[in-house]
From TrEMBL:
Belongs to the Cu-Zn superoxide dismutase family. The keyword tRNA processing does not apply. Destroys radicals which are normally produced within the cells and which are toxic to biological systems. The keyword Metal-binding applies. This is Superoxide dismutase [Cu-Zn].
Length: 175
């Protein structure tokens, strides 16, 4: 009986430590859908970490785009109407050039290219101090649009990366 209890305690404590640290608290999410017919093609989840940074886990399930690369950016407005055009241009709170995430200059929502496998599945995770969820702050991501493009971001062409048509769209909403 004593051993059984000790093992139970071990299992419970192992489970607790494996799921709490680093993951943070979920603070926002964005469902992604096709601009053509509103079909679900994935989602993004946003977590506030202990150090104040925000982590995004984005997942795409887009069979129509299997074995291809799609480009993902945050755009200025959270309105997916008019085939995603209502989101306007890339969200750019730091007034930098368009570019590859982590390079010398890039927009704060230049997530970049995501490779989709034979089922159209792909993921990307980004952790950054460029984002906040604080109202009226210039880097507040709440209410921004997320656009999935049907082409590849060349990380060079200004201000869009020449990423192709807007095939998917979502809006970041606070949890
Ligand atoms: Cu874009
Ligand atoms: Zn950009």
């Amino acid at each position: 009986m004593k051993n059984y209890l000790a093992i139970a305690v071990l299992i419970v404590s192992a489970a607790m430590t494996s799921c709490s640290p680093g993951k943070g608290k979920q603070v926002a999410h964005a469902p992604l859908a096709t601009t053509a017919d509103g079909k679900e093609i994935g989602s993004a989840q946003f977590f506030l970490l202990d150090d104040g940074k925000i982590k995004m886990d984005l997942e795409i399930n887009f069979p129509a785009r299997a074995d291809s690369t799609v480009a993902v950016h945050f755009h200025e407005h959270g309105d997916c109407g008019n085939m995603g055009e209502n989101t306007h241009g890339h969200w750019n709170p730091t007034k930098e050039a368009h570019g590859k995430w982590g390079s010398a200059a890039y927009h704060s929502g230049d997530i970049g290219n995501i490779t989709l496998d034979s089922k159209g599945h792909g993921t990307v995770s980004v952790t950054t101090d460029r984002w906040s969820i604080t109202e009226n702050e210039v880097n507040n991501i709440i209410g921004r649009g997320i656009i999935v493009h049907g082409g590849t971001d060349d990380y060079t062409t200004q201000p869009t990366g020449n990423s192709g048509p807007r095939v998917g769209c979502g809006v970041i909403v606070k949890d």
